[in-house]
Amino acid sequence: MAVWHQLFPSVSLFVLMCFAVLIAGTIRSFTGFGGGLVLAPLFSLFMTPADMVVVVLLLNFLTSVQTLPSTWHTTDWRMVRALSIPALLGVPLGVWLVEWMDPNMIRRMIGVIVAGLAGIMLIGWKYNGPRGRIQDWIVGITSGALTAIAGVGGPPLVLYLLSAKDISPVVLRSFFMMFFTFAQISTMAFFLYKGMINTDQLIYSVSFAPVYLVSTVLGSFLFVKALTGSVDLIKRLSLWFLLVVGVVTLAI
Known about the structure:
Number of helices: 11
Oligomer: single chain
């Protein structure tokens, strides 16, 4: 309990972080991505970069496991293989950058990534360039590195895949869930190998886990409802929220 009180010095801080976890889990379960984009900016204010990454990955992994039965049969495994293999090469690069970069620099970078992605998607820009093995490897390596740096590996994949007209929302959501399951496992394994897993991270994760599990159910419910008509509204509200989070992170 002494360690818990050290990590959460006030009830209001714990409630604030739980609220962020609730929103993050809901967005991630609804879209297949976005959990880290919500959590990383806030967590970076109270945790070291390594602790923040591990806690974000552990919480997102809970969502991935929880939704695995519903996404397994709708996953495009060819697409998962094409992007997961290069992502594995990006993980060591990201871990090295976590050890090398200044924490404030990482926090600023997270803010730029989150606000930039939200802004680009809100104005409706879409990637219409070539798609092939070279592009898959560039996107995969970048995503793997960003997953290891801050648990925010989604933006390169989102910008690359959301504009693909031959991928349905169900298949895209399943891909994100499955891709990040592999990315999270490989990143956690590398962190464990480097001795970067500690008790504080586990206490953070256990404290937030019940809220994240509830948010997963809520996000899945909203996804089913959105398929019948309100998907655009929920996505836009999520993007505006991410934009505010990113800007606030840069301003603090």
